[in-house]
Amino acid sequence: MLSKPASAIRFNRLLLTGAAGNLGRELRPRLRAYCEVLRVSHRSDLGSPEAGEEVMTAALEDKAAVLALLEGVDAVVHMGGVSTEQPWEDILAGNIVGGYNLYEAARKQGVKRIVFASSNHVTGFYRQDEVLDTHVPMRPDGFYGLSKAFGENLAQLYFDRWGIETVSLRIGSSFPEPADRRMLATWMSHDDLERLVVASLTAPIVGHTVIYGMSDNSTTWWDNTHARHIGYRPLDSSDVFRDQVEARQQRVDRNDPTALYQGGGFVTKGPFD
């Protein structure tokens, strides 16, 4: 975790949704350094608040609960919703209806900046021998990626119509270390995740900006040239793990769609009936 001086505080109240999820748990203690009060939320009970926190339970598909959740908030880090390929009904409730409820609440409560956890699975059906910028057409690799494409379009609409700014983070693979060769390209350290979120919260003007969430990896499929105004500069790299990853996974089956496409295993998941 990065250390910050007291001068790092930029906000009165920040909201972190999905605070019990994998990345929410990682961001929760980090974001407290940037605000007077961190409001944390999840659909299930988060227990007692830590110092400098407010805890609110809210299911994203509950419009009234989400409206209350955004009251008095300066900005939102939206990590909530379904984060893997799941049955359509779950994705519809958490990511489609929930996304709409969040943006409607932001409009009604006067919140003007959202950092939205999108996903690399918005472009998962591009091949691993292609390099993409943030302006390429979306090619989602499943219902999850499709819901994140909807979220990015929702963000664009709410900026164009109501001036709510969003940075959509097409997060790659944010784990302590890369698990396989695919992650040598998609990996983002937790420290770089923090850097990306803070840059997205504090950049002066963002409109609706899409940016790929990755560390400074030598192997990459993504080009963030169009998002340089965000000011995100990753400092970590998957390269330090390359030798051990390649030793574990010495061969790649090029006929396997999970090795051919950028979405990896997501391109073959589901349906669930």
Explain how this protein is built.
The structure is a single chain. With 273 residues, this protein is of the alpha/beta class. It has one domain (6-268): Rossmann fold, CATH 3.40.50.720. 33% of the residues lie in helices and 16% in strands. The chain is built from 8 helices and 7 strands; from the N terminus they run E-H-E-E-H-E-H-E-H-E-H-H-E-H-H. It has helices at 22-31, 63-69, 88-109, 143-162, 181-186, 190-202, 242-248, 257-260, and strands spanning 11-17, 35-42, 53-57, 75-78, 113-119, 165-171, 208-213. The protein has a 7-stranded parallel β-sheet with strand order 3-2-1-4-5-6-7, with helices on both faces. Helix 2 (63-69) crosses helix 3 (88-109) and helix 3 (88-109) packs parallel to helix 4 (143-162). The longest helix is centred in the middle third of the chain and has 22 residues, at 88-109. It is globular. It starts with 10 loop residues before the first strand and ends in a 13-residue tail after the last helix.
